[in-house]
Structures are given as structure tokens and as C-alpha cells.
TrEMBL record, chain A:
The keyword rRNA-binding does not apply. CDD domains: PsrB. It comes from Sedimenticola thiotaurini. This is 4Fe-4S dicluster domain-containing protein. The lineage of its organism: Bacteria, Pseudomonadati, Pseudomonadota, Gammaproteobacteria, Chromatiales. Residues 4-34, 51-82, 83-112 form the 4Fe-4S ferredoxin-type domain. InterPro entries: 4Fe4S_Fe-S-bd, 4Fe4S_Fe_S_CS, ET_IronSulfur_Cluster-Binding. Keywords: 4Fe-4S, Iron, Iron-sulfur, Metal-binding.
UniProtKB/TrEMBL annotation, chain B:
It comes from the Bacteria. It is a multi-pass membrane protein. Keywords: Cell membrane, Membrane, Transmembrane, Transmembrane helix. Gene3D superfamilies: Formate dehydrogenase/DMSO reductase domain. The keyword Transmembrane applies. It comes from Sedimenticola thiotaurini. This is Polysulfide reductase. Belongs to the NrfD family.
């Protein structure tokens, strides 16, 4: 069995936003609305000489217990056996309950107007046919072709690493097993599959 | 990573979903209360017709608010299918949609026999012609025969709608103000309190029958109890939010520094009507104006509650 997960090292993210651009082009997201499946937050932490910038990449955490899936009234949000949480565009009516339920702000809407703009922006290659809620898919179409997710492949600082948690020989899996990489807000019971290596311990 | 948390309210479900929740609770509770009154207190044609049709209209308006803001209106068909409950039993919108549909269905059935003896519906163009159809008359006869069964089916679905409005908000785990057992309780009590206020308004201003005095007195007493319970729940929320989860504490800071919440909802939406109705129950009023005023305040307060709850849920983000 495969269980996909991502590890993000906050020590090596330089905030170049290449992941955002790669994801947007790969997945044809609504960049004209400043809408992204993955986003890099830029935050100043500390004061005076201790101040530093933190770049914090954010995306769907592909939770084992995804609240977006449990609140979805039509069953449009579903979870694959490999852990990837997806949206069926044909089933989604766009009530936005998933966006309300997601603790990681990983859902965004695609409207009728966005679909029209998408046809102009991406041309004849545009794949979307109808409005729905949208989210990261871990680039499952690339995984099926034996490639890494676009954001992982393009990351210049190797801050994003992808792994199969059921493969004990995977070096990224070993990072997760070591406890160095931790999930966000585990107390919410969402059991996320995106892990972060904290940068704060190396400072001061 | 916790030291870098940021906090934000949402702009995804705003006033339109507050109206949906408000109309849903008010309409469903109104229908349920009038049917229970008709079945067990006093058969009352006007109350049933007003309760059923205002409940249905409120539910329809509320549902329209939700429908209007869907991204794909055609895809709503998937949630209208009753089988949705088998593959999405944990999704409260799926339950709510079915409760709303079936509440309307059983509500119309229950009201149908009364429509035949209502001068208004006998003259209402279009409706009176439909009521002349043989199969509709047959359904009305069946409704009369199985009156209590139909009444209970409508009531159960109505209570389901009222409870659902709170369970829906409760199902979002990231926001402490919402994700707690108090929210369904608060929304349910508020739904029935606003329904009592709505019915008191109807009975004092529209139906206005001296023979209904005992019903009005009962409604006033029930409403007084419901407002008391609501005040206790609000106090418990204050206690719950004042320590513990940072998300809850941020919501508390927003709510308890907002005059609309403090004076609008708690003051004029709960405390003032409570005092007006308390005086009415203990000593009585010589005029019905104070109870009408209290009812209007409760109705406004019911919306304000949902409005402020929706706008002041705080998400805690670790970035």
C-alpha cells in the first residue's frame, strides 16, 4: 500500500514562490484572482536584531481524517487509498462547507466566471469544464506518471520533499519517523500528511 | 511553530448563511409548534395554516439564500436525492436538505384538509382549482385520516431542521466558537424562542381571537423559559471562551467588544424581551403592545445571534 506525504523544511525555504508558479501552471489554477493551491506565507518573526523572515509554504494536508470530506454533502470530496484527498468537479455544488471546515485554508472556489477566464488564460489546453471548489491533489496525475508533484520538483532549496510513508527505506519517510518533522495542529484530530521541520530551534 | 500563529475570521459564509440558518430554524420551529398545538392543545385551522405556510415560505427563502450562492446550481441535484444520506451520513447539509424537503412535504399534507375549509384558500386563484382535482381531495381525506402520523412526521423533520442549523456550524473543527456542543443547543433553543415570538406576533396582530388566550399565555411562558435557557447558554459560552483555546478567546474579544452583540443581541434581543415577558407572566399587561414589542425584539435578536456567531468564528493558522 502507498501512503503519500510531504515534508517541508522551513529552514531551507527561501520564499522564491517557484512552487506556487509551478503548481499554478501545472494545475491551471485561477491566478488572476490571486488564488493558489499552494501558497508561501512571508512573515517577520521576532524584533530588533533577532528579527528574521520565515517563509511558510502551505497546501492541502491530505488528512487521514479530513473534515472537508465529512462535511461535503454530495460526496464530491473523497479520499483515495493512497491518502490523496480530491474533489470530483461533477459532484461538487460549491456550497463551500469544505472551505469552512478546513483548518489549513486549503480550499478555494472556482466560479462560472473563472471557468470562462480560464479558457482565455490557458487556451485550448484548459481542462476544467465547470465550477467547483478546488484544492491540491499532490499532482496525482504526475505521480501516476512516475514524477514528483510540481511544487516538489521545482523547489530550489529542496524545502519540499515527497515520500511514501509505507516505504521504510525512503529517506524522507525516515525524517517523519524520527519526529523531526511534525504535522500542523494535530490536536484537531485531522491527522494530516504534510509535515514541517521547524526552523525556530536553530535560531537564537 | 506555535509562536507564529495568526488569527483570522472568515468571509466565506457571511450574512446570507446567517439568514439561511435563521429562517431555517424559525420556519421549522414555527411549523412544529403549530402542529403540536393543533394536535394536543386545540384544533386550530388558522394557526396551522399560518404555521405551515410561513414555515414553508421561510424555509424556501432560506434555502434560496444557500442555493443562490452555490458555485454550480445544477449539481444541487445530488443533495436533493434522499439516497445521499446513505453515502454521506456524516454531512449535515445532506441531512438538513432532507429534513427541509420532508418537513415541507408533510407540512403541506397536514395543512391540506384545513385549506379546504379556509375561505382564503377557497378563493385563492389557482390553488382553489388544484384543490378541486379529485386526487388532491383524496390526499386531503387521507391526511385527515392519518392526521397525527402526518403531524408527527412534519414535527420530527421540523425539529430536525432546527437542530441541524446548529450541528452544521458545529461541524467545523478549526473554530472553537463553533466546534462545541453548545452551538446546536443554542441554535435549537433560539429557533424555538423565535418561533414562539413569531406565533405570539401572529396571534396578537393577525389571528387575534379572544378564545386563544390560553394558547398565548402558554406560548409566553414557554418563551420566557426558552429565553432564560438561552441566557444561561450565552453565559456558559462566555465562561467557555474566556479561558483555554486561543481561538475561543479571540472570538470572545471580538464579541464582547461589539455593541451589536452586547446591546443588540444580549440587551435588546434577550434581556429586554425577557423582562417584558416576565412582567406579563407575573402581573400581566393591560395592552398587548409590550408582548408584541418583545416578540419583535426576539425576532431581530434571533438573526443577530446567527450573524455574530458566523462573523466571529476565529481560525488559528500556524503561519
Amino acid at each position: 500500500m502507498t501512503r503519500y506525504a510531504m515534508v517541508i523544511d522551513l529552514n531551507t525555504c527561501v520564499g522564491c514562490n517557484a512552487c506556487m508558479a509551478a503548481c499554478a501552471m501545472e494545475n491551471q489554477t485561477e491566478v488572476w484572482n490571486d488564488v493558489w493551491r499552494t501558497y508561501v506565507h512571508d512573515k517577520e518573526i521576532g524584533t530588533g536584531e533577532y528579527a528574521h523572515r520565515r517563509f511558510f509554504p502551505r497546501l492541502c494536508n491530505h488528512c487521514d481524517n479530513p473534515p472537508c470530506m465529512s462535511v461535503c454533502p454530495t460526496g464530491a470530496t473523497y479520499r483515495l487509498d493512497n491518502g490523496i484527498v480530491k474533489v470530483d468537479q461533477a459532484l461538487c455544488m460549491g456550497c463551500r462547507a469544505c472551505a469552512m471546515a478546513c483548518p489549513y485554508d486549503a480550499r478555494h472556489e472556482v466560479t462560472y466566471a473563472d471557468v470562462r477566464t480560464g479558457r482565455e488564460f490557458y487556451g485550448s489546453d484548459y481542462r476544467r469544464t465547470r465550477p467547483s471548489m478546488d484544492k491540491c491533489t499532490f499532482c496525482d496525475h504526475r505521480l501516476a506518471a512516475g514524477q514528483q508533484p510540481a511544487c516538489v520538483e521545482t523547489c530550489v532549496g529542496s524545502a519540499r520533499m515527497f515520500c511514501d510513508l509505507d516505504d521504510p527505506d525512503d529517506p524522507v519517510t525516515r525524517i517523519v519517523e524520527s519526529g523531526v518533522a511534525r504535522p500542523l495542529m494535530p490536536h484537531l484530530g485531522t491527522r494530516p500528511n504534510v509535515y514541517y521541520i521547524d526552523d525556530m530551534k536553530r535560531r537564537g | 511553530m506555535d509562536v507564529t500563529m495568526s488569527y483570522a475570521t472568515q468571509d466565506i459564509w457571511t450574512w446570507w448563511i446567517a439568514i439561511y440558518l435563521y429562517f431555517g430554524g424559525l420556519g421549522a420551529a414555527t411549523l412544529a409548534v403549530t402542529f403540536l398545538t393543533d394536535m394536543y392543545l386545540k384544533p386550530h385551522r388558522d394557526l396551522v395554516l399560518w404555521g405551515a405556510w410561513s414555515g414553508i415560505v421561510l424555509l424556501a427563502l432560506g434555502s434560496l439564500m444557500l442555493f443562490g450562492h452555490l458555485l454550480d446550481h445544477v449539481a444541487v441535484i445530488h443533495v436533493l436525492n434522499p439516497l445521499v444520506l446513505f453515502y454521506q451520513p456524516h454531512a449535515w447539509i445532506a441531512w438538513g436538505t432532507q429534513f427541509i424537503i420532508w418537513m415541507m412535504f408533510w407540512g403541506v399534507l397536514y395543512a391540506l384538509p384545513y385549506m379546504y375549509i379556509s375561505p382564503f384558500f377557497q378563493k385563492l386563484w389557482g390553488v382553489n382549482r388544484v384543490m378541486d382535482w379529485g386526487w388532491v381531495q383524496k390526499i386531503a381525506e387521507l391526511s385527515t385520516r392519518y392526521r397525527k402520523f402526518i403531524g408527527w412526521m412534519a414535527t420530527i423533520n421540523g425539529v430536525g431542521v432546527a437542530v441541524y442549523t446548529g450541528l452544521l456550524v458545529q461541524s467545523f473543527p478549526a473554530v472553537a466558537l463553533w466546534h462545541n456542543p453548545g452551538i446546536p443547543l443554542l441554535f435549537t433553543v433560539s429557533a424555538f424562542s423565535t418561533a414562539m415570538a413569531f406565533l405570539l406576533l401572529l396571534m396578537y396582530v393577525v389571528i387575534h381571537d379572544a378564545a386563544d388566550d390560553h394558547i398565548r399565555v402558554l406560548y409566553e411562558r414557554i418563551d420566557l423559559v426558552l429565553i432564560s435557557v438561552e441566557l444561561v447558554i450565552i453565559f456558559s459560552f462566555y465562561q467557555f471562551m474566556s479561558s483555554g483555546d486561543e481561538s475561543a478567546m479571540r472570538s470572545l474579544q471580538l464579541l464582547w467588544n461589539d455593541l451589536g452583540w452586547l446591546i443588540g443581541f444580549i440587551g435588546f434581543g434577550l434581556v429586554v424581551p425577557f423582562l417584558l415577558e416576565l412582567r406579563g407572566v407575573l402581573k400581566g399587561w393591560t395592552s398587548h403592545v409590550p408582548i408584541v414589542a418583545a416578540s419583535l425584539l426576539i425576532l431581530v435578536g434571533g438573526y443577530l445571534l446567527r450573524h455574530y456567531i458566523m462573523y466571529n468564528g476565529v481560525y488559528a493558522y500556524p503561519w
